[in-house]
Give the backbone structure.
Amino acid sequence: MNDMRPLERIVDTDNVKIAAKNVQVYYGDTHAIKDVDVDILANTVTAFIGPSGCGKSTFLRCINRMNDTIDIARIEGNILLDGEDIYDKRVDPVQLRARVGMVFQKPNPFPKSIYDNVAYGPKIHGLARNKAELDEIVEKALRRGAIWDEVKDRLHASGTGLSGGQQQRLCIARAVATEPEVLLMDEPCSALDPIATAQVEELIDELKETYSVVIVTHSMQQAARVSQKTAFFHLGNLVEYGDTGDIFNTPQDQRTESYITGRIG
Amino acid sequence: MTDATASGAAPERRHTSLMTADKGTRRRNAAEARFRAYGLAAIAVGLAALVILLVSILSQGLSSFRQAYVTLDVPLTAETLDPGGNRDPADIASVSTFGYSSIIRDAVLNTFRNAGIEIEGLSEDEARGIISPEASAQIRDRVLADPELIGQTVEIEVLANSWIDGYFKGRVTDRTAELNSNVSPAQIQLAQAMQDAGILNVHFNWAFITAPDASDNRPEAAGLGVAIIGSLYMMLIVLCLALPIGVAASIYLEEFAPQNWFTDVIEVNISNLAAVPSIVYGILGLAIFINFAGLPQSAPIVGGLVLTLMTLPTIIIATRASLKAVPPSIRDAALGIGASKMQSVFHHVLPLAMPGILTGTIIGLAQALGETAPLLLIGMVAFVRDYPAAPPDGFFDPASALPVQVYNWTQRADPAFVERASGAIIVLLVFLLIMNTLAIVLRRRFERRW
Amino acid sequence: MPVFWILAIVLVLGAAGYVLGRARALSSAGDDYRSLHSLPSYYGWNAFILTVVPALLVLAAWMLIAPIVIDGMVSGLVDEGMQEGSNLSLLMSDVRRLAAGLDSAVSSGALSASEASGLVADNALAGRLMGLGISLGSSVTETTLAAAQRYRGLAAASQVWMAVVVIALAAGGLLLGLRRINPSFRARNAVETGLLALLILASSIAILTTLGIVLSMLFETINFFRQYPASEFFFSTTWSPDFRGNSELGILPLLWGTLYISLIALLVAVPVGLFAAIYLSEYAGPKMRAVAKPLIEVLAGIPTIVYGLFALITVGPALRDYFAQPLGLGNSSSSVMTAGLVMGIMLIPFVSSLSDDIINAVPQSMRDGSLGLGATPSETIRSVIIPAALPGIVGAVLLAASRAIGETMIVVLGAGAAAARLNEGLTEAINPFEAMTTVTVKIVSQLTGDTDFASPETLVAFALGLTLFVITLALNVLALYIVRKYREQYE
């Protein structure tokens, strides 16, 4: 895996989907995220890289307010989605999360059938008027999750019976079924074998046609392979953010260079 | 990945502002709020039940700790009490409580005269009815304790009748007295006059805690003495049997037992015994300890044995949990310096697990203390007025137990016994509170984080 | 010799064994205990165990077996001289009572030993016995008296022999223990083996208890079915015991009362307990949890007699005055509703703490997955957590049901003593404000007070007990199995 050559891609810099300004996160007394500013573009894959505990996952969870579920977490600063502050008092996190979906590190299918796993989001958000429409949405999501061919004959089998890679693609299908605008992925391949990883990466590349994808990853090769933009986090700070090619070829900051060449992390 | 591109068309986007909740979201948030409210309501129901339960018991029972007493000037006439005139204790004791009834009548009249209370419109019997039938026994006890009093007029505080007592506690009013054959409004007025004159007082009632049970028609004299001793004896037996046996069984199962069918059978047995209805243990006690082994009915030994068997699963489960909490590194350390397995357990693991074991034992004892059903079957409902002897002989004497005494009193007709039953519950709850507080203190004080 | 003294002598011998054993070990090693295999006290303990344990085991066995043997020998005597129409077990209990009465009369000095053995069964005897405080079920016949005398003789002989054998055994054990002491004797291993045997013995008490429960009820139940047809017991719809005979002892009315009250209790406890658990584990902040959880669990520490009294003096009258009478449904303060409601309150903490454990066992990733899709917390709970936790919750409900079915004091004080009238139409049978009795109440009422262990009216309690035991056991086993399977799923 020596292929560090970033893909040449045309990036549309005018189309800012998410703008974060001066974001601070505290866990109790710990200052976990310090003063992060970042603009995430539409129809782009953005990778967050950095050593363990650098705050990249924490920041990712801020984008759809998953940190709300942790009692001791406190967030300051602004994160704008299409120009609207998602931490505004009037914002309903439920509505937000419908537009900013999330895929987790460990595949977490519900202990229900494959069909019900995917139909769950559309059902709670009321996206389907009838059973036929729901069937259509489920099929579309499973196709987009690149798992339709494998499961179409056993839609009513349990989702927990699939293999790890299949489970993760099922979770991606589940997330896209609600038609989000942004898809957050928290180390989606860390629990998968190389073949499943390749499948998921290919999928991510296709998903960017429709969504803005943010992926947290430990693997720099993966970041280089799938992303157009890369942000490097270190000790809660956003050290460097730019086009993936620039970050990997001509890093501006000493710390980024050390990390990429393998001296820290 | 051909199927992904097959659906390449971008899905329609709903560009609603995040700031305004759409209709669906509002509906869902309302459902959310309702669901939360159900949860809160459930907690409120639980807490309200607790409060109502406690308030109901306290309001009914607290009054049993106070009792109306009448101070009588009792002329202890020698002709009645000591016909032989030789002050021989055996002779004095031969005068039964019936012999004291004339003394009481004289004492009542005497007292009223001294206090200047008119008893017009009331017969002598009615005036005497203010005094509890227990009074003659009280005076007799006083005389037997000190025969020198004979021939003098002595001030003795005796119990008032339960209906009069009930008037001062609000249980009996003028209106209910009219309808009641046991007490008349005139008697109540008289009692009120007696209180005004200072010869009737309501004050703290030690006898409720120390005295034995009393018969159906004198609830004012009934106390918890025998029941408390009986419960105490049983707890002693449970502690002495259940703790060592439970700890021994847990040590075997946790530290020595091999994985085989015998161990499995024991494990399954213990978890099932913990859930067997308590009344079944009563049947066991009746069939095995009384009918088969021939132990006496109503005896603390049988109750103690039955409660031991009931408490064992609780203690075993708690002990095993605290043995499990001792990290293996401690065992390894002991074994590593050449201690035998037995030595490592008894010298190192067991002392470290002791606080948890004691906590579990106290909680088991508290459960046993409140247990009623099995004791009913082994005859502890019997009416017992004699205090059991000191252990170990006393373990075989008939006794009652606190919760059984409560049941016993609820089965009697006189409403004064309901007050007594609630009062007994308060005593029981105080004991339980002390035990549980002790358990919590133990746990807090010795809680160890590995 | 009383058992107490035998015990004391054995223990004194044991203590002597410890002291002597320790001293002997030390002296055999020339006062340098480093040359011993084990610490000196282990030699002492070894002697102690050899002295005490076999002696005590024999003592216990003797005390258990001797009465049976003596009974067997005496009942042969009684059987021969038995008159027509009398009952062997009744006669035997008379014999035992007579023997015990004579013994106590001798020990209290009311009769001399020779007087007691010289009694004659004439008309004056009954009166004389009455004077001694011995009351018998039937008149004293020659046979009874002879049997009682033989019983006394055998019992006294057994006592003497027991003392001799036990003390001899203890002394023998002491000698053996002392003789085995020499520096290379592995005393620690011997003591530890003995200790391990004691530990195993303690653990097997659980099995003995279960065995005792089953056997004690099984034998009397078989007795009962000899006197009363089993089909009547299981299928008759009437319960009307009559101690003069002609009882109808159908379990169905009792079972219906039990199940009806349990159902109401579960209808109260399951929603309240479940919602409380959900709120505490999913919504409540740490402060609220710290206060509300222990308070609700206080309900679990309150003895059932307290709930019974609460039903009797507060809930029962309140339900009667505000619901039953205004609605014209009954005038009884003891009712299915009273007992069910109060039992429901008792079960709230049981359901809530079990459900709490089970809900917390559902992995956080499930919640994250659902919330990440934009589900509200309640949607997450309803469509992800509850379905995932369902087996565990079903197990908890089954355990609660088993508790409700076996509960005694609340129903004794709150449900009344009248059996359900299943033959008088549906409304009578399902009116929740009607008094209705349960299996446990009837066990209590048939077995308290003066009982005659020969009549079906008393023995039916054992059949009821066995039925209750089987039902609750089945529920518990099923529930424990379900809960265990559930836990394995997430481990």
In short: Chain A is about 35% helix and 25% strand.
